[in-house]
Amino acid sequence: MKIYKNHIAEKIAGIIGDDRDRIETLLEIPPSEDMGDLAFPCFTLSKDMRRAPDVIAEELGNKIGRDNLIERAEAAGPYVNFYIDKSHLISTVIDQILSDRDDYGRSDEGSGKNIIIEYSSPNIAKPFGIGHLRSTVIGASLKRIYEYLGYKVVSINHLGDWGTQFGKLIYAYRNWGDELKLNEDPIGHLYELYVRIHREEENDPKLVELTRSEFKELEEGDSENIDLWRRFSDLSRKEFRKIYKMLGVNFDSEKGESFYIDKIPAVEKSLKDRDLLKESQDATIIDLEKYEMPPILIRKSDDTSLYATRDLAAAIYRKKEYNFDKMVYVVGVAQSLYFRQLFKSLELMGNDWADNCHHVSFGWVKLGEEMMSTRRGNIVFLEDVLARTVEEAKKIVEENSPDLPDPDSVAKAVGIGAVIFTDLSCRRDTDIAFDWDKMLDFRGNSGPYIQYSHARICSVIRKYGKELKKEYNAGLLLLPEEYSMAKMLVCYPDIIKKAANEFEPYYISNFLLELCGIFNTYYQKYRSPEDRILSSNSDVADSRVTLADCARIVLHSGLKLLGISAPEMM
Predict the structure, then answer these.
(1) What is the pTM of this model?
(2) Taking Cα atoms as reference points, which of 76, 166, 155 lies closest to residue 125?
(3) What's the pLDDT tens digit per position in 282-311?
(4) Domain with residues 2-84, CATH architecture
(5) What gap in Å lies between CA 275 and CA 445, rounded to an integer?
């Protein structure tokens, strides 16, 4: 709607002698189409102009005349409602989409700017649980969105491949490890050992010191411990990549915590030089009490490092390596305090770029009874969830489309897409609940519903049976749903920017649902030979199919930004 906001803001500014940019920020989209396409509230002008808002609105409404962009302006109480020329809007958006095709909405606003996004970051030697899904798909979607806007994005999988848990795991493997099990099911066996050592420590507190000793030897470079640690890491990475392949996710860097071990001394020296380190109960801390935060631990009493130390080293390294303009950490809401501590510590170290670090938090995953049945121990394996969803999707696809040429690939696209969309269909900080029926509902607010809408448009185009051309007549697109659809398409570039500015892929998923709702109403409502999309009037059919194809292009684009496939047949 940018072109229309600019135009209206210029007209208002010219009449009242105000700043055009300020006027543009005040323009709103009315809650109902009956109230126009854009509205200007006159409350803010009342004080300076010394007149009631409704009086100002009446004057503006009378002075703003019709032109090639604006059909009319009407005062409605303290608002001026603007009605855009329908034919102009429809032809403008169709021409733009047909010109840009798959690049519609793309921009170069991020040209020359670097963004780092850290996401997923599972722990080595532990299963890739359902809890890691949110970070993974939110981060991957943000990467695509920022790249679409011209930013250079570096995606980082900051693997949890260091820490006291490896002392526990090394001790457990030496005492109870099974080579055959490790080769057959590496993650399952390592997790089994991890659970066992925790249980044994509860029964024998002496084991706590023994496992700490193993980690200390690892940090000091013991060759046997290093070899075991490296083996566990390699096996885990191999298993993780299977999950990432299923989700269509990749990374530019997989430097884990261990990469920053040799960079910790420089961090500690910087902290010491700035007199930021204090001793507390034999541990080394940064005291943040004056900032109303608890201290952040830098070294334990046994002189081993902590993840906070490694995160400080990682942030400083990334600034030097990538010179980022913005760094984003996609991590659960439970870590909100920790990231406040981390960013404040970076600031106290004299890093003025600390303000460009952002914690993109997200809520919890709630699991229904059926989902709980996929548990192994006390973790829901994501691989199990994805496999089950694809299996359920295949049943639905085979039942509804028995003659589909490639049901397996469609079932995979639908099943994986359903899981991803469930995660991205609500605001980040909202807790989400997985429900098999809702996830795979082709008629509800789901990923399959959007995929099916895309496939439906593809079917219409196939039935049209002619080559799509740029020739169309916007004056023939007179149905209310046609204008509503065109208005939605106009807003798509702004939606992408809003998703980027607020780190919220939800805006794109919600937009796609609304667009599908309008199209499906349009498709189902008009069934007579003249009114349906494939009208008996060939000129009308040409124009309607062209508009439908524009909707298809945007649906495909939006699904791609979310990381979801768009099948042409379902």
Answers:
(1) 0.91
(2) 166
(3) 889 999 999 999 999 998 877 777 889 999
(4) 2-Layer Sandwich (3.30)
(5) 55
